[in-house]
Amino acid sequence: MLDLHVHLLGHLDRKANAENIRSFLEQARASNLTQIGFADHDMYWEDLQLDLIRKVAEEYPDLQVRVGLEVDYQEDQEPQIKQLIASYPFDYVIGSVHQLAGWYFDMPEEEEKHRYYDSDKYYREYFNAIEKAASSGLFDIIGHLDLIKIFNMRPQADVRTLAAAALKTIKEQGLVVEINTNGRYKPVREFYPELKLIETMKEMGIPFTLGSDAHSPLAVGRDLSEVCGMLKDLDVHQVTGFKQRKAQIIAI
Ligand SMILES: [Zn+2]
Ligand SMILES: [Zn+2]
Predict the structure, then answer these.
(1) Residue pLDDT, tens place only, 231-241
(2) 11 burial class (0-12, 13-18, 19+ CB within 10 angstroms)?
């Protein structure tokens, strides 16, 4: 099993030092992971110690330790994102949408706005941004595909219809979508993306990967064996890992 969405720094809650890296890797072992990928937020670029991760990983030959990045996608920042990604030999890059025209909609203090804004409208804008992220050619993985549901506001329209164009682009671009278990610990109380979207992607032949979105060591691998069981029930028997930006098929 693997977990490719792990934040060593959290939200700058700790430093990227050897001791902290080890505590994440110990938990990876305890969770029976074979592959763990660190993917801190690109906004903390100055605080990352990516070579140190690779060095500490040598103490854990039983683990495939990967170095990734979670990029906060913004359409007008594509050249800067491209430059950033090219400046380090990442194993993979996650493209995530956390904001719509400067509205960082997933912050707890933004919940109220989700109630009085038109949900169909912001769902459309959100999936439009996901589609642009997918077509940018910058990423390997799309992060938390339906993060916009975080406060459990649902659109009137079928979410599969709202996401259809984005999913088509994801498929055409050969991208991988993560099943991210962190949503269970948010007001929406379910994984990202919801089952209907997972079923649609399975039918489309879009590959999956797994991510806990851990911001602390104890959350590494959280609920991922449950996700594997759910995928097997859907007749999905493999997920995708990465090394040097090449996909690796891993049986579950
Ligand atoms: Zn994210
Ligand atoms: Zn994340």
Answers:
(1) 999 999 999 99
(2) exposed
Neighbours of ion ligand 1 (CB under 5 A): 96
Q: How far is the CA of 226 from the centre of ligand 2 (A)?
A: 20
- Counting ligands in written order, the one closest to the CA of 147 is 1
Ligand number nearest CA of 95 is: 1
Give me ligand 2 centre to Cα 40, in Å.
Answer: 7
- For 106-140, b where at least 16 C-beta lie within 10 A, e where not — what string? beeeeeeebeeeebeebbbbbbbbbbbbbebebbb
Token pair for residue 189?
Answer: 């109380």
Q: 211: CA distance to ligand 2 center in Å?
A: 9
Share above pLDDT 90 across residues of the chain, in percent, rounded to a whole number: 100
State pLDDT tens for residues 76-131: 999 999 999 999 999 999 999 999 999 999 999 999 999 999 999 999 999 999 99
**Res 2: pLDDT:** 98
Q: Give every CB contact of residue 138 below 8 A, 6+ residues apart in sequence.
A: 71, 73, 78, 81, 82, 85, 93, 95
Domains of the chain, first to last: 71-251 (3.20.20.140)
SS3 state of residue 237? coil
